[in-house]
Please model this.
Amino acid sequence: MTDSRAAHAHPPAHSVDIQGVSQHFMQGDTRIDVLKNIDLKVRYGEVVAILGPSGSGKSTLLNILGLLSTPASGSYLLDGTDTATFNAAQRAEARLDSIGFVFQAFHLIEHKNVYRNVELPLIYRGVPKAERAQRVADTLALLGLSHRTDAPITTLSGGEKQRVAIARALIGEPALLLCDEPTGSLDEELTREVIDLLRECTGEQQSTIVITHDPLVAEHCDRVLRMHEGQLIEQKAPRQEETTARASLNQPSFTEEQASKPQSSGRAPWALASLKEAWDATVHRVRRNIFTMLGVVLGIASLVLTVGLTATISGQLADSFDIFRAKHLTISSTRTEAMSRTELLSLAASENYRRVSQLNGVTGTALVDQLYESTDIQRGPDNFGERGANVTAAVLAATPSIFSVQGHELVWGRTFDEGHMERNDKVVVLSESVMRQLALPYSPGVTVYIHDEPYTVIGVVRENPSLTLSYGSVYLPLGAKPGADVEEAQPAAGGGAVAAQTGKRSTQIVVSTVAGAANQIAEEAPYALSPERPALYSVSVPPEPKTLREAVDQQQRTMLLAMSVITLVIGAMGIMNTFLVAVMERRREVGLRLAIGMRPSGILLQFSAEALLTGILGAVAGIVLAVNGISIVSLLNRWTPIISADTILLGLGAGALVGVLAGLYPAAKASRIDPAQTLAAG
Model:
């Protein structure tokens, strides 16, 4: 509110001019008239006392005079300005510019010292810091509190607290000073002291209204009015001579006063003031908010720890996983019928097959005829037990290079060679797991039966666990086809040896490569085998371990992030509940801030900012905890910790978001507090 007196060529005669003001409340269907057609005019320089018992309407009238509530009817001119059309923001600005409150309960903010309590209205006005310091110093000197400037509120006596409350009310040089039982909690000596101060501080451009039940206070006022059943009755004529004498003292003139008073001029300092007050409240309540922030701390720590450790582990294991990169691929023919022995041997000796082995990055090739995916392998009768004991295994006919291509380790004996393949010798190389299951000794002359055909075991190899094709397999020289006669005679039989056979027969070329070359070779191999018709062959490449690792990392990250989110939600609920409790505890503080001129939107902003700052502080603590955790884990494993700026920003952003979302409802609730009720309760 711009100063109304500055808008007039001549200042108005009265600071307060109310006519026909009435107020009522409804109790169910019953109407209760609290104020009945009140008329009141208060001149500048006048000190007016309003006496009356509880329930007479004094507090209701005070709330209307202080623009804390609106009348049901009637008009109210404050400092020459009609208040009837004021919205909430204008009423707050009018309280800030033209009204000062002094309460019986003092309503001082305990986490602030004397200086900071007194300067609060000037902060809301946007007065520069240097000017605030000078005006606070002058006001405290006037009230004899210069020696208590930095004193905590909790160390003050009752009389000193009341002086601080008066100083805060006077600091803005209001046109109207409203005092609600200002001496109710003081003894007689202090009562006289306080009322004398109020009289001395009421200048020629100010008025003071004192709501009291104390006749001693009334005796020192210029005029005494009595409230009775909602009506205002003048009890005592004005002490005109004292009023006039006091007005003749060295009080500042109207012009001088306006020159010293800050003008709002459309400025909106309340937003910045709310943010400053939010920071101040958060800093001074940090110990109390530790448990409030704990949920945020743990949630952010979990979040940052998850992201940071994942990045660290990925970075450290990336090189290690290179040794497990895909080094094998399988080339399969798309033809559906089985290849004959002649065709297999011809393919193994062909130029096209040789071209595949000469591709850049190829370290070896092997032609494999998968005879049976699963069939019975029977132990020979000889001296090792009766025939019939068996295991189920895959049967592969392959070129001798199969063992080097698949990286098998020879455990016993030897592998077959080109001679065995050309002669179609009945020899077999067993994988170690098959040999173990058959309980055969590692001795020459051991025989096994495959589809009733005997094969001499010449060697045993240990499987490569990274290749599923090699595990639990039986290897024959390429071209061998045990049970072929039985299959031709009984292609559809359901019993005997053929019944043990399962799976589709297929021919494949197994290719070993250098690490990382498998995908490139997979593109080139079909053209090497069949330049005219590459579609005759399909290539299968195992997924890169890196891809698998990333998939596993993603699953772990998702799980841990979900846990982090749950923790953050719990933290947000903790902040919300704590701030709801804080709003109830700080109702009087909120009411005071509203009374001295803070807008409801400013209260909303302040409490939202406090929740935001709580979330950010919790995030900072969580990030510090997580960084230390990542460092400790890295140190124990001799890793290099990887903590990116994005991870830190993610933690801060999550903390801020949690704080804002958790604080919105409590902040909205605080902004809707009725200052008239909360201050009256105090």
